[in-house]
Structures are given as C-alpha cells and as structure tokens.
Amino acid sequence: MSAKKYEIRLHGVAASPGIAFGRILRIGGDVVEVEKRTIQADQVAVEIEKLKIALAKSKADLQEMYEKTRASYGEEAAEIFSVHKIMLEDPMVVDESENKISKEKVNADFAFAMVMEKYIGLLRGMNDELFKARSADVIDLKRRVIRYIQGGAPSRLKQLKEPAIIFAKELTPSETIRVDKSKVLGFAMDFGARTSHATILARSIKVPAVVGLNNARDILNDGDFVVLDGDEGVCIVNPTRKTIAAYRKRHADYITFEKKLSSIKGLPARTKDGKDIELASNIEFPNEVDSIVDLRGDGIGLYRTEYLFLAGDRQPEEEQQFEEYKTIIEKLNGKPLIIRTFDLGGDKPSEFLPMPVELNPFLGVRGVRLYRGAGHDFFRSQLRAIIRASAYGDVRIMFPMIACVSEMRYCRTIMDEIMSDFKAKGVRFNKKIPFGAMIEVPSAAATADLIARECDFLSIGTNDLIQYTIAVDRGNKNLAYLYQPYNPAVLRFIRDTIKKGHQQGAWVGMCGEMASDPLMTMVLIGLGLDEFSISPVSHLLVKAIIRHVEYAECENLAQKALALSTSDEVKSYLEDVYNKKFKHLQHFPH
Length: 590
Ligand code: PEP
Ligand code: MG
Prior knowledge:
Elements lengths: L7 E4 L1 E4 L2 E8 L17 H30 L1 H15 L1 H14 L3 H18 L3 H21 L6 H4 L4 E5 L4 H5 L6 E6 L7 H8 L4 E3 L13 E5 L4 E4 L3 H21 L16 E6 L5 H7 L4 E5 L1 H6 L6 H15 L4 E4 L35 H14 L5 E5 L5 H21 L9 E5 L2 H5 L1 H5 L4 E4 L1 H9 L17 H16 L3 E4 L10 H6 L4 E4 L4 H8 L4 H12 L4 H15 L9
Helix pairs in contact: 1-2, 1-3, 1-5, 3-4, 4-5, 12-13, 13-14
The structure holds phosphoenolpyruvate (PEP) and magnesium ion.
C-alpha cells in the first residue's frame, strides 16, 4: 500500500505502560495461519487422509465435550457441540474440501479453510441474527480442524525467533500465556480493554500494550516497523525519524526516572503522618516472584492461579500445584501470599473443564460458581495444595466472585472437610489459615458486613465490580466510555465495603486495577483501605505517592471526591490535585 510510506498514528486504549520499538508479527484470532501450497499429484491422497483424520479427531473432541457438558449442565447446554459435530459431517464441507485438494492440488488446511470461509460468508450474509451468530461457531470449528491438520504445528508465537511486537485482533488468555516472554516487545490488539486478561498479563510481563485499536488489522502487516506507546495508547506505523527521536528521548527519561524511583524500594509505604499501608503485588505467573521479592513490598495480595490451568495441555495435579505454591511462599520469606482459587469462566474459558455455552458468560458459570459443578474436583485439589503449602509460610486463601454468604459458607465447608482429613492423617498445615472473599459483585458489596463475619478479610476486585455495578462488559470497546472507575456508584460501594468490613473486624484490601491507579491512591487511603495489591509496574509510583501525603488530607480529599456527581467530575478533580501535588512524578504515566 503506498500510504504506508507515510507515518500513520493508530489510536487505542493505553493498556500497559512503556514504549516499544520493533517489527510487527501478526498472530492468532481470525488471522488463520494457513499458507497455500501447491502439491504434487501423488500427495493428494496424503492430504485427503490428513483432512479425514483431523475431522475424526475434531468430532471425537466434540463428542467428549458434548457428554461432559450434558452430564454437568444438561442437554440444552450441550446441544451446541452436537450441532458442531453435524456441521463437520456436512457433505458441503467434507466433499468440497476433498474436491479442492484433488482438483486444485492444494494442501488440506488451505482447502478446508477456503470451504469454511465460504460457509462463514453465507451465514454472515443471512438476514437472521441467529445465523449471523452461528458464524462465530464456524470460525471456531475451522480453527479446531486446521490445528489438527497441521498436526499441532507450533503456532507462530512459538516460532518467534526475533523479538517482535505482537499484533492480534484479540488474544485469549491461553494464547497470551504461550508467548515466549523473552521475545515479546509489546502487544497491539484491535479488541480488548485495560482490564481484559490479556492486558493484565502484558503488565505482568512488563511490556507495553495498546488495545482497542479497532481496525489496525487492515493496516498492520508482518514486518512493519512501529513505535508502540503504551502510555498514551498509540501505535505509530512507519514512524518518521523525528518521531523515533522524540520517543527515544521519552523512553530514556522514563528509564532515568524509574532508576531514581527505585531508591525508595527498601523504605516503608508510610504516609508523612505515620500511617502504614500494606503494599502488596498481583502476580499471574509463579516466576514473577523474584521481581516481587526485589521490590521489597508486602508480599503478594493476589495470585491469579487460573494461569496454572491455562498454561499447560493438562490440568494441574495437586502435587504440581503444591510444589508451585511452596516455592513461592518460601521465596517470600515470611511475607504473605494470598492465593486466589481459580476464577475460570467469563473471558477465561478453560480447555479442561466442560464449560456450558452461555449467552452471557460474565453473568454465567464463573469463579466460585464452578466449584459446585464441573470445577468441584479441581477446587478440592487446589484447596488441598494450598492448605498443605500453608505449613511453609503465611499462605492465605481468597475466593473469587462471591455473591452471597452461602457461597462463602460452601467454600468454608470444603476447607473444613479437607482440614479434618489432614488432621486425621497427620498432614502439617496452618490450622488458622486466613481466608477471605473478593468483593467484586454488587450484592457482595452491599452485604460486605455479612460476608466479613464469615471470614478474615475482604479484597475489592474493582475490575469486575465496575462492570457489574454499571452493567458494562469490561472488554467491550463500544462501551468503554461507560466503564467508569470513578463512577460515584463504584466509589460508594468501595467506601461502604471498607466501612462494613472494618465494623466486623476484617481488614479490607483492593486487588483490582484501581489499586494501581495513582489518581486514586489518596482517595483509597482516605477511605481507610488497609492493603493495596497492585501491578508490579505501578508499585514504586504508588509507594512514592503514599510517602508524599498525610492521612488527614487524604480523608478530606476522599470526602470531596465522593460528594461529586459524575465520573468525569471526579476524574478531573483528581487529575487537578495530582498535577499540582505530584509534579515530581510527572514522568510516570497515569
Ligand atoms: C477484579 O475483578 O478486580 C480482579 C482482581 O479479578 P480479575 O481481574 O482476575 O477478574
Ligand atoms: Mg475479578
């Protein structure tokens, strides 16, 4: 494209800070990694056989998913898998693919992809929403069969030789986790939001990310040189020399400032008037623990263990989990480790658990709701591993998506059963292992006092609390304007949760992304939050703010912020205060 000789600025959402310079590698999602190859006549039978085997394997998968789902959730939920299976038997698909291979002498994955594309086009063209929606199913089927035809050929992510900026329409958490982190300079995506899990992951591996780019897929090609600005949410294609020079300077300033900031590493997170705040970190991967130890903070306030389940090709065994948890807690050397039991579902589907196909997965079977059904055995084995690890340090347990007291009691009952079993067998563990609830559903926030009575602590999960309070999908780009962390309803829920938790003698923390937002640090201190569990990238900045303020002024500021009527009013008030008070921190994006 001739326009590509010019610099193009693509605007999206700033999802992980920092600046990266590099070449684009497109992967995943709709970008089907299929190449057209011309085959010899004697290869036709081989390619047709590959197709047949792939179809048979896919059908076997679908049958298994059908049976598991039917056993856990009933016929209606399972039906989709039998529909998929029937599609794979449709002569239009099978015969046409074989014909293409033999007549056009092309490879099986290419032939099959072309046929499915035609199918998808037909469905999309229909004047019926139900058929249009079915096209997503067909895309899924296409990928499944192609993966088998290619014999599990390593994805482009695995083949990464040179460091690159990864572009995808949208990365799933399981795709993100398979990335070779040493080769990734940054992520750019058409979809996604600041709190979608792929971007949380980008922050955890400390590379810049820009999401919500909308139509970058029409512009970006493999090998394009870009500057990715994760602070402002911009991806610059074919940058001019002037642009590159300006960004190199900004990058250098940032690095210098970061070095300066690291001088407060060993100092306490204490306000000027002596109030101590617990400053813990969020982790996604066990191997992040070394950098957490290096920060010299207050341990780990959220270990998102679902990544154990998304990473491998098998479900993790109790023993493997126990070893992981034990390694982490030993490295933390006396500091706390809060392990959140797995929170699959929503935008984190599992390849191992039969998940029902639901119209609204975020309002469906996710988090603690899975523990009574298909996730029950996992839940037990995870709890056993965590409780055993508690013999080696300050391990605590946290349950996700608690919506009411009875769910908390359910978790407690299973914990008690495991502990009795361990006692009988003489297994070592902490009999007073602290446990708590995430407050991320409005019903839990409204009854935080009742929930706090049942446990030792509460941790506010703002990523979900915002989406459920305002009824806005946290990953939906069209509604990004309504995903408002500063919305007065959200602020009131936070204020009330802290107050209600304290009334019942529970400490209250926050592990959602809001805890990493420097604009909110003073408000949260002022509302009496006991613990902040934040992305490691924001740790020192938040600490610098804490050390620069007085508790009394934070209380005052929190009251003023809570008296405002709209999210925009709160945001501009907080920006005003921030820009005046923290001039010395301006090199850091917020
Ligand atoms: C949250 O919802 O704020 C949270 C910390 O959990 P997750 O982002 O993993 O859903
Ligand atoms: Mg959550």
